[in-house]
Design a protein that fits this description.
Rossmann fold; seven-stranded antiparallel beta sheet; alpha/beta; Bovine Mitochondrial F1-ATPase, ATP Synthase Beta Chain, Chain D, domain3; Elongation Factor Tu (Ef-tu), domain 3
Length: 489
């Protein structure tokens, strides 16, 4: 962070939430860094949000608690907020402002980069072509994450979405190519931060992980800054050092709430549900920093996690996120109540770039075909399940009941996965074929004859289930007391 010039202003006009208004300023620009000195000698940092003639609105990163109008002094630095970028961030744990939490020295050296980032020229973007291996069957098999993609996780309060994101960060790799993880915790309670850190500690190459922690009791201005610092570090690793970088932002809904609070403090006219009208462009400024640049070896992939308030996918946060990103991974409270974890809702999920990063010459020849077949089987089973609720399961035909058993196998043998279990792509696709092979060949209309000849295995040829495999009784609906306890945020 740059040190502002020593010219100080004492004319504070107002303090409102995380914002202060400074009068009688000249030559101050947007995004300019500022230092606020309190009468106790404490120095806090800020960023200029708005300038109107001789009045500047400054967002104080550490908050305005204890600040007084008659004694605080503000100095403007003349440059935007910057951080040093280098490999020194890897292996470190920092707070949302980039200050060490691991008792190590501050990250210094390298070039200074504005945290606002540099937009990628659309003409210079390369089409994503290769997958990021997450080790999670639901993602690798059905909604493949591709290098340079931004693929959000949509969830509701009470589900294990943070654990899933941490599991992906702990297991992901780029098939032996240089790889790094940047994980930004956004406004999380301390208990969830501890859970995330305990999962990330399982990563074998922990020195390739940069962790930025913003907790629920940190100032909201710091929360707004945290993803920008994390992405600035990731851009340097990807586009300057040639690494494939996966950035996890969780929980993006907390970030949007902070944007709404700052907007309200500024007195702006609210838009949908109290969010500012620029929420779309604000999120796009973060999410569009993902991608690949033609001629450069690295890539920046994003996996943002957000909770849908009241489970409403039309809420402004998931709504505008869906317009910016290339698909979504949706977690279902209904599946979670049935004991499926991760509770991946296949029919509501989609990776729009999957066909560019999976299939012949990229993953395995049968990958796209078996994924399409599983989607078809899940869709058919859902129709039959809806019918059974009306007429009863006894009224179903034998073939229809078999489809319901295939759905159980899909949820038990393919989707359900331990948090510490990392599956290879071969294992994931073999599990997919084990599920599809429960039906005769003529029922598998999405698969070419040659693909069926190579991979279809009649049930009599299946390996017996492992001794510790869950039984159908173990995936029965949970009693009410085991349902997600936390109401959707």
């Amino acid at each position: 962070m740059t040190i502002p010039a020593p010219i100080e202003h004492r004319a504070l006009d107002s303090i409102r939430g995380p914002l202060i208004a400074v009068r009688d300023v000249a030559g101050v620009g947007w995004d300019e860094v500022a230092a606020i000195r309190l009468d106790s000698g404490e120095v806090r940092h800020g960023v200029v949000l708005e300038v109107d003639r001789d009045l500047a609105i400054v967002e104080v990163l550490e908050g305005t608690a204890g600040m007084r109008l008659d004694s605080a002094r503000v100095a403007f630095g003349g440059t935007p907020l910057e951080i040093p970028v280098s490999e020194g961030w890897l292996g470190r744990t920092c707070n949302g402002r980039g200050e060490p939490l691991d008792e190590g020295p501050p990250v210094l050296g390298g070039q200074l980069r504005p945290v606002a980032g540099r937009p990628i020229n659309p003409a210079a973007r390369a089409l994503p072509r290769e997958m990021v291996h997450t080790g999670v069957s639901a993602i690798d098999g059905l909604a493949t994450l591709v290098r340079g993609q931004k693929l959000p996780v949509f969830s509701v309060g009470g589900l294990a979405h943070l654990e899933l994101a941490a599991q992906v960060a702990a297991q992901a790799h780029a098939g032996g190519e240089p790889f790094a993880i940047v994980f930004a915790a956004l406004g999380l309670p301390h208990g969830e931060v501890h859970a995330v850190r305990s999962i990330l500690e399982r990563r074998s190459d922990a020195g390739e992980l940069a962790l930025f922690l913003n907790t629920a009791d940190d100032p909201i201005a710091e929360l707004i800054l945290t993803p920008r610092i994390a992405l600035t570090v990731a851009e340097h690793l990807a586009f300057d050092l040639g690494r494939h970088v996966l950035v996890v932002l969780a929980d993006l809904t907390n970030y949007c709430e902070a944007v709404r609070q700052v907007s309200a403090a500024r007195g702006e006219v609210p838009s949908r549900r109290g969010y500012p009208g620029y929420l779309y462009s604000d999120l796009a400024g973060l999410l569009e920093r993902a991608g690949q640049i033609r001629g450069l070896p690295g890539s920046l992939t994003q996996l943002p996690v957000l909770t849908m308030p009241a489970g409403d996918i039309t809420h402004p946060v998931p709504d505008v996120t869906g317009y910016i990103t290339e698909g979504q991974l949706v977690l279902s409270a209904e599946l979670y109540a049935r004991g499926v974890d991760p509770p991946f809702d296949a029919l509501a999920s989609l990776s729009r770039l999957m066909r560019h990063g999976a299939g012949p010459g990229l993953t395995r020849e049968d990958h796209l075909e078996i994924a399409a077949q599983l989607y078809a089987l899940v869709a058919r089973a859902r129709q039959i399940a809806d019918l059974a609720e009306v007429v009863g399961e006894d009224a179903l035909s034998a073939a229809e009941r078999e489809h319901l058993r295939v759905r159980e196998a899909f949820e038990r043998e393919f989707l359900t996965q331990r948090p510490d279990e990392s599956r290879t792509l071969t294992e994931t696709l073999d599990r997919a074929w084990a599920v599809a092979s429960l039906l005769p060949r003529e029922e598998l209309s999405m698969l070419a004859p040659a693909t069926l000849d190579a991979h279809h295995r009649p049930p009599s040829h299946h390996q017996p289930p492992a001794e510790d495999a869950p039984t159908p009784a173990e995936i029965a609906p949970r009693p009410a007391e085991d349902a997600p306890a936390n109401p959707p945020r």
